[in-house]
Amino acid sequence: MQNPYLPYPVRIDDITVEAEDKSLKTFTFVFLNPGDEEKFAYRAGQFAELSIAGKGEIPIGIASSPVEKGFVKFTVNRAGVVTTHLHNMKVGDIMGLRGPLGNCYPWERMEGKNILIVGGGFAFTTLRSSIVYMLDPANRPKFGSIDVVYGARSPGMLLYKEELVAWEKRDDINMHITVDATNDPGWKYNVGFVPPITEQKAPPGGDDTYAIVCGPPIMIKFTQPVLEKLGYSHDHIIMSLENRMKCGFGMCGRCGVGKELVCKDGPVFTLAQINQTPREY
Amino acid sequence: MTLVKIDKQDWAEGLAAAAEAYRLYGPVKQKDYHQFKALDKGELPDLNLVNTRLSPKALLFPQSENMLEYSLDESREDHHIMKAVVRDLSPRAVIGIRPCDAKSTLLVRLNFDTPDVKDPYWLEAHEATTFIGLACDTPLSTCFCTAAGCGPYHEEGLDMLVMDRGDTYLAKILSDKGKAFAEAAGWTMNADDAAAFETGRQAAEGRIVATIESDNLAAADLLALHGAPFWDDIAFACINCGTCTFSCPTCWCFDIQDEVHGSAGVRMKNWDSCMFPIFTVHTTGHNPRSNKTQRVRQRFMHKLKYFVDKYDAGIMCVGCGRCVRQCPVNIDIRRVCAQMNRFKTADACAVQS
């Protein structure tokens, strides 16, 4: 019997400091055992448990994309026991990876549609996975227009800066990068919170457009009325929830929001689905 | 279906014979309470009990169970690589489990045995175990199994059901596992007294006076029940001690923790409880169920509404009455369930029950 608690052994292959305050690092892992990478086949929007012997596990969204092979990447905010330990680990260290877990963004349903991505802060990870997936030459024809509103507190807190610059230059994706504030005179993108920038830049909603929203609660709270005003219906607004988790596959019981388990029935839900839950997240 | 008669004089000898092939578990009185434990050689299960204080769920889902092990010693080739612990999965038999507790294994299985993910620790322990049930002729005033999809002679989850007839036991063999155990114990004296079981069942069911009303729960509106006005009142006296969840045969929530001694570590599964604030607290400090009303509501909504909606297998309760008897502040699931069952959305402002 397959043991779902047993992680795949992985080696840390690269560590990139993402944020100017050093609170965010991106870890690139390679699988120790041949064949494990195939077993870990994932889709954009899923998460995994990063597993450190002696410390514990943390559920983190997968930041690499299914079209990238040979490694998997996670961007981790230093916050608790496990993430703090992980931030102190070095290239070459051995740890574990359990997954992929949860559902993904509804790629089949979104095929042929325009996509609006709204992200804030370090919740941009599975959105990065999604953008790389959609921009892959094999996949780009499957989608209409792609708009991305992505904001952070300051330019130095934006994730994946080189990729943002590269996407900015493309004509098949409309990037709307913003920061809350900056005193950098060379800053040539937007200044302002994500909700008002979304109101100014996002395409109108409708049957042919889906919005994927991922960010801190305060951003989500003020983005929802903006999207409603732009004509997005609740079953076209897609969100990814978070709750405290342990097992990650629907057995330990703690991430329940009503009868939905965030780890197994989610983390991706439409706003219409979330409206039917007691919102205990 | 085979019936066998066991003379009580031969009982100990039969169990001793079975112990050659099985690890035996049974209820034993420890201090003031009965508890399921592994029986020592020659030790007999004490069947002169109503029921154990804690349910026997720990036989399949130990309060603390090592799942993985690893070494942090970097001089070793396999340092930091986790491996499943080796468990003793040789056959074992539980003697004297009550039908309510046996039925609970079916409900808990719904959680641990899903189409895409299976918990090998629970499932393999279950597979290795033969359940020898003891029919319940002396139910307590807090027992309401007959109203909870179960009963004092209920057979689901059992491999053999034994009824006490004074000088003899009458045993009904219910599965191949039960048949194998009867053979190992040498219980081969066939009986044809099927009517005795029926008489015993009817008499025992007649002694159960408590009930739980749940007929409206499936049709009730989930969000309306969640927002019902009675939760603060129900939770008022609760001290969030978790006794209800730990004593419950159907509560399955657990935590996963690492523990290290020197360079040797284990990853273990521990019972957890929705009554505890830390159960849901995020690293940021945010807690989606930060007050006790939310936690008490979660327990009852999970058992009596979410589970009902999700599995269409009735309520997540077998009517053993442990939470009713042991709650230090007398919160009674039967009363809570009645309030939920009678709740009408339109009456939201008028409910006074």
Write up this protein.
The complex is a heterodimer of chains A (281) and B (353). Chain A starts with 7 loop residues before the first strand and ends in a 6-residue tail after the last helix. Chain A contains eight helices and 15 strands. The radius of gyration of chain A is 18 Å and the shape is globular. With 281 residues, chain A is of the alpha/beta class. In chain A, the strands form three sheets. Chain A has a seven-stranded mixed beta sheet with strand order 10-9-8-7-11-12-15, with helices on both faces. A six-stranded antiparallel beta sheet of chain A has the order 4-3-6-1-2-5, with helices on one face. The longest helix of chain A is centred in the C-terminal third of the chain and has 13 residues, at 217-229. Chain B has two domains: 2-54 and 87-207, no CATH class; 222-347, no CATH class. Chain B is built from eleven helices and twelve strands. Chain B has an eight-stranded mixed beta sheet, with helices on both faces. In chain B, strands 5-4-12-11 form a four-stranded antiparallel beta sheet, with no helix packed on it. Chain B is globular and about 65 Å long. Chain B starts with a strand and ends in an 11-residue tail after the last helix. The mean pLDDT of chain B is 95. At the A-B interface, strand 6 and strand 13 of A face strand 4, strand 5, helix 3, helix 6 and strand 11 of B.
List its traits.
heterodimer; A: 281 residues; alpha/beta; Elongation Factor Tu (Ef-tu), domain 3; Rossmann fold; 2 domains; 7-stranded mixed sheet; 6-stranded antiparallel sheet; 8 helices; 22% helix; globular; B: 353 residues; alpha+beta; 4-stranded antiparallel sheet; 11 helices; 20% strand
Most extensive interface, residues per chain?
A-B, 43 and 53 residues
Fraction in beta strands of chain A? 25-35%
Strand order of the largest sheet of chain B: 3-2-6-7-8-9-1-10
Number of helices of chain A: 8
The profile of the biggest β sheet of chain B is: 8 strands, mixed
Round the Cα radius of gyration of chain B to an integer and report it: 22 Å
Number of strands of chain A: 15
Structural class of chain B: alpha+beta
DSSP helix fraction of chain A: 10-25%
CATH superfamily of the largest domain in chain A: Nucleotide-binding domain of ferredoxin-NADP reductase (FNR) module
Estimate the global geometry of chain B from the Cα principal axes. globular
The helix tally of chain B amounts to 11
Number of domains of chain A: 2
| Beta strand % of chain B | 15-25%
The CATH topology of the largest domain in chain A, please?
Rossmann fold
Terminal-residue CA separation of chain A: 33 Å
Residue share in helices of chain B?
25-40%
Shape of chain A: globular
Average pLDDT for all residues of chain B: 95
